[in-house]
Amino acid sequence: MIADSDISPATVRGFYDFMCAEYRANVKPKRGDLAMEAAATFLATVQIQKSRDAFLDNYVTTMGRTVFVPYEVGVDGRWSCWQQIETLAHECEHIHQHDTTGALAHGFDYLMSKARRTHIEAEAYAVNLELHHWRYGTIEDWYPRVRAESMHGYGVSDADVAYMRRFLASRAPTISAGGFLSHAGRSAIAWLDRHAPELRSPSVRDRRLPWA
User: What is the pTM of this model?
Assistant: First the structure.
């Protein structure tokens, strides 16, 4: 299995092209975008984020169908090429949530309810579990806990973090058995199985789908 740092820029960009077409998404730089700069100020003010810089530099944000990223797609660095692949799949699950529940309801729930924000993110982090298993062949016991603890940066409570940990841990057996639980995870793995099978763990079977 090749190292994350050896994933080619062409693979990452091809994955982005596919997922953006599949979810009718756009990807743009986060820094310098007026809407993102304004959101950074708002989220820091209401204490959903710890600071403006934390929001702009440490998080990917989806607004509508636009995914704002703090990295150059396909360039390995602070965000590795594999992290960039996982991240876009995660954000495309948010777009699927947005389409399923409606823009206003999704946005209101995310901003105004800590519990709903946590559940929305838990569903999207299930995508990360699916891709992590596909790539490395396992979901370590610590993985749901580490993912859940990242929610401390989203302005939620300790109880919300504990909920996410339980949610993700409960999904691990199905994912480890080869099941899909998310819309974007299925799409992402179908493309990766067809176009980048060298990234897949040898212990994970090819689940290639004909339309990917």
Answer: 0.90
